[in-house]
Amino acid sequence: MSEKTAASSKKKGGGALLGAAFIMATSAIGPGFLTQTAQFTGTHQASFGFVILASIVLAAIAQINIWRVLCVSGLRGQDVANKVLPGLGYVVSILVAFGGLVFNIGNVGGGGLGFNTLLGLPTKVGCTLAGIIAIAVFLIKDAKAAMDNLAKVLGGIMIIVIFVIIIVVKPPVGDALVNTVVPSTGYSKLVPAIITLLGGTVGGYITFSGAHRLIDAGITGKENLKEINKSSVMGIGIATLVRIFLFLAILGVVVKLTDGATLDSSNPAADAFRLGAGEIGYRFAGLVILCAAITSIIGAAYTSVSFLKTFHPAISEHENWVVIGFIIISTIIMLVIGTTPATLLILAGAVNGLILPITLGICLIASKNKKIVGNDYNHPTVLLVLGVIVVIISAYLGITTFMSNMGSLLG
Prior knowledge:
single chain
């Protein structure tokens, strides 16, 4: 291999590492993420800082475990599951793809909301445009590189815009730091918010988005473990940075609300930006929502389809077209329904809460199976123990949430 070729390969590998981190992070930072963070900040104010801290720690443990097993083995999530128990991978694929489709309908709706807030376009027109932009990425010859680059650009825009709002609203950073360690509302009241954010950060398809991107880029095996860990930590770090920035930006607004005033529940993030920085703040919110929606549409479609590759070779051979079809279906359903399908979202959210302990548990079992990870790989005991703790916590909270949501649907 010539020096020029080697340098080019190294550059592409580095781009894939950062791209995988941004794909994971921006998949986690969707319209639902913005709404949840805004609503929870409005409810818990500075105490929401503890929720962010707890969800970050749990998410980091889950993600590092999963990424290491998948990338060292070179196998996607469903293939690892099939190695652990034949047929299990197909069940996981169906669960993840279903959750990805339903959430992608919400992402398309978020795109419509973003265009409406930013430019005043009708929501259905905005939904259509968001779908078209996402589809355009997969019409490009090197779609994966385009996906990487778009995730980086739009993720960077979100960080910059939210930081500008922080400067304008001047949040009580000291109070937020204190409540991050000792929340004034008490710990027990924050548990529902923790499981919601955990599911939104590494639940369902999200934690696999970056790992599957690294596998597609050929960054696998024990020899690439340093790069795999680096990309995983970067992904969590980027998502964490945006979450902290958004929390501080909205906190700076809600602490100044008087007479029992609350944020507009239909679009709390945009309402907070408007109250904090006027009309330009409202338009900024539209830009953030739009960036979040488009990157999440791309991430959800790409990762969901990557789980379906096991079903038939044709899916892998025509991956881009299948991804495009996935986006088209999501967009059409959103346009037909007209609003976010609440019942489906409740069901998908409940399933999503159960997917994390299942997939993480599978990866922890696989981490000790030499036929999967190889004879020369030893999974760190501390990661294994911490992973088991996260499985137990997320399983308990996931089952509780699932039963509660099913009760709501049936009752």
